[in-house]
Amino acid sequence: MDRLLSLRRYIGLQRRTTITRLARFVCFAALILFTQAACAITIGASNTTISGTVYGDSIALQEQGISKMVPLSGATVRCGNTTAKTDTSGHYHLSLAQAKSYDCTASLTFYQPEQDTLDLVQGTNLTLNFGPASQTECKVAPRSTTEEDCESLSLIQGTLTGAVTDAGSKKPVANATVQCVPVDPHALTDEPVDSNAGQTTTTSARGTFTLGGLATGPYTCVAIVNNIIKTQQSVTIAPGATTNTTFSVCPGDCHPVHYHGGAVMRTVTAYLIFWQPWAYSFEPGGSDAHFESLMKRFIQDLQGTSYYGLLTQYWDYQGSVQNQISLGGVYVDHTPYQHCQYDGTQCNSAAATQNDPLLDQDIVGEIARALKANPTWSIGQTHEFFVFTGHDAEECQSSKSTDGCTFSGSKGYCAYHNYYYPENSTADTPTPTIYAYIPDTASEWSECSPQGSVGPNGDSIADMTINFLSHELFESVSDPLYNTADRSTGGWYNDAVDAKTQGEGEIGDLCGTQFGYIGADGGNVTLRHGDRYLVQMEWSNRTNSCSFG
Length: 549
Known about the structure:
The chain is an alpha+beta fold. The protein has helices at residues 2-34, 59-62, 288-300, 306-309, 360-373, 460-478, 497-502; strands at 47-53, 55-57, 69-71, 76-79, 82-85, 91-97, 101-107, 114-119, 125-130, 147-150, 158-166, 177-182, 199-202, 208-214, 217-225, 228-237, 242-249, 257-259, 268-275, 315-316, 319-320, 325-333, 338-339, 348-349, 383-389, 416-420, 433-438, 492-494, 525-526, 532-533, 538-540, 545-547. The protein folds into three domains: 47-150, Immunoglobulin-like (Sandwich), CATH 2.60.40.1120; 158-254, Immunoglobulins (Immunoglobulin-like, Sandwich), CATH 2.60.40.10; 268-547. The chain has a five-stranded mixed beta sheet with strand order 22-19-25-27-26, with helices on both faces. A hairpin with an 8-residue loop joins strand 23 (338-339) and strand 24 (348-349). Helix 3 (288-300) runs parallel beside helix 6 (460-478). The chain is elongated.
C-alpha cells in the first residue's frame, strides 16, 4: 500500500512537471507571436555590430604639401567599452550589446581624435565611417539609414621656433618679422602667390620667435628686417612636433637686388611669335629662316646649363626657380602691322614708323591673334610669349612719342617685358599673360649692341637679337609682374631711386653692358650641344656681381 501511494505521487509529480514545461513553452510562443507581456519572461539581449573605415590626411603626402585623405591603419575605434583596431585598409569591426545610442571615438597617434554619437539607432548592423565626408556631428534618427559618414581625423598642428641673427656680428636681431607661407606644389602652374598668406610673428629682444598652430606640410619662411626681406628658409612642419630653424641675415643693405613678395616663374614654356609682313625682313640681305632657327635653338639650348641655372638663386613663397625651360611653339605671322584692340580685333593699318609707330597694345593684339591661330597654346604663370618684329619697324610708348621708342637714344629701349590680364576674364584671380617685345637689332646698333662684335654664329643681327631675348627672359623669370605703379607684385629688383624711376633695376639692367671675355669666335658662353652665343652677364646675389652662372 505504501509503495502504491509512493508510485502515484511520483507519477503525479511527473505529470505536473510536464504540464508546467508545456505551459512555459506555450507562453514563450505566445510572447513571440502575440507580444503578450503578461508572461514575464526575459529575453537575452542580442548584439549589435558597428563597422566602417577610418580616414585621415596622409602624413607623407601632407609633408610634401599635398592634402589627400587615405584609410588609416592602426587607428583605435572605441564604442562604449568595446575597442577595435583598423586593419591595413583602415577597416574595423565591433560587436557590442544593443543599445539606443553609442558614443564612438576614433584616435591615432599624431591625429586629433574624433568623437561621434549614434543616437536612437534601429537595427543591429551599423556602419560608421570616419571620413571622407566632413561633418560636425553624426546622428542616426529612427528608421533612417544605418550608414553614416562623419568627420575624418585631422593631423595635430605643429610649432616652429628659432632665432634671427646678424651674419656679421652673430648678435640677435630684435623686432625682425618672421613670415611662414605654406607651399602649394600646384602653384608651379597656377595663379600668382598671395604674399599675405601664412602666419607672421616678431622676434623678441633676444632674437627668438615662436610660431604655433602650423598645419603639417612644407613652408617658405622669410626674415624681414627694416621692411626688407633678407633671407628665406624652407622648413617642413611635422604633426604634433616642434621644428627649429635659424635665420642669418646680412647687415645693412648687403645686396642691391631684393625680393619684394611677388611671383617668379619657376619653370618657363616659351612661345616665339615672328610678326613679319611680306614687305619686311629680319635679315636685310640675309636669311630670315636662319634668323628664326637661331632664336628657336637658343631657347632649346638653355635648360640645365650653369648660365640659366643662375636664376635658381631667385625664389618666391612657393619655391625657387628651376633650371627648366622648354619651347612651346613657333608662329610666323605675315599679317600687316596694325593698330588693334587688346583682343586682336577692330584693327586698322599701322606704318610702324616713328610718325606712326606700333604701340604696346598692338603687340598684345598680335599675341591674341597667335593664340587664336594656335589652339594648343595657352597662357599661364609659367608661359611667356616673345614677339619679334622686322627691320625698321618702330614701336613707341605712345603715338605722340618723340622719345621712348625703340633705339631712340638715351631714353629709348632695346626691348622690354610686360604682362596683362585678359579684359574679358571672369576668373576671381585671372591668369596674367606674360610677354616680351624684341625688335630687330638691324634697325640700330649704337645703343644696344657691344661695339665691334660679330657674334659666334656668323649672323651679327641674330646674335645681337639673342642677347635681347636673353636679357628679357632672365628679367621675366625673376620679376614677371613688375609694375611701377603697384610694387607689391614685384619679384627681384634693385630698390635704388634711379632704378625705381627709370625702371632699370632688374637683374638684366644691372649688367646690360657687361659681356666679360669674348672669345676669338665672337662668343662668350657655351650652352647645350656645344652651341656658342654672345650674351650679357646677369646679376647674381651669390657672387654680388654680374655673372654667367
